[in-house]
Design brief:
It is a single chain. This protein is an alpha/beta fold. The protein has a 7-stranded parallel β-sheet with strand order 4-3-2-1-5-6-7, sandwiched between helices. The radius of gyration is 15 Å and the shape is globular. The two termini are 14 Å apart.
């Protein structure tokens, strides 16, 4: 199974997040799943792909060509696909993936999460989405989404399309089950 992982590229995040990312990558590869990601060598993206590479797993980097500069990209991916734009990148990430993990990140990760979550709510795909809430990173976002349901901006049924966990084994089990 190809699992897309969205996450930070930041080089200044706490090491506990990076450790969780590496553990996620190792477990994905151990269970025979391929990583589909944005190609970055740093932050959560870099941590996950290092975990995959450590276990000799497969990784597909989908990268806008303007990111192809020294030190930005993880160089030992199984496959690298270059796009002209970020929009093309997101479309290919979606097309080449069977499921989505959202790990802690910034504005780019939020953009990717909300787009793929919106597409799922509109029935444009049926792929599982798991918010990996390492260290409670997404707690306030989850509270906001729950508030949006309470205020009738989001239906409770839409929230059922999203799974939240901080457990890597549980997350992989969820996507393997196709939930």
């Amino acid at each position: 199974m190809n699992i897309c992982v969205y996450g930070a590229a930041s080089t200044t995040i706490d090491s506990s997040f990076l450790e969780a990312g590496e553990a996620l990558g190792r477990e994905m590869a151990k269970r025979g799943h391929s990583l589909v990601f944005g190609g970055g060598a740093s932050g959560m993206m870099g941590a996950v792909v290092r975990g995959v590479a450590e276990m000799k797993g497969s990784s597909i980097a989908i990268v806008p060509s303007f990111f192809n500069v020294d030190g930005v990209l993880f160089e030992n991916c199984t496959e690298q696909i270059f796009t002209e734009t970020m929009r093309e990148r997101k479309q290919l990430l979606e097309q080449k993936s069977d499921a989505f993990f959202v790990t802690p990140g910034g504005i780019g990760t939020f953009d990717e999460f909300f787009e793929i979550f919106t597409l799922r709510s509109l029935d444009c795909h049926k792929k599982p989405i798991v918010l990996l809430n390492f260290n409670g990173y997404f707690d306030k976002l989850i509270n906001f989404l729950d508030y949006s349901v309470k205020e009738n901006f989001i239906s409770p049924e839409v929230m059922e399309l999203l799974t939240v966990t901080d457990d890597i084994v549980e997350a992989i089990g969820i996507v393997e089950a196709g939930v």
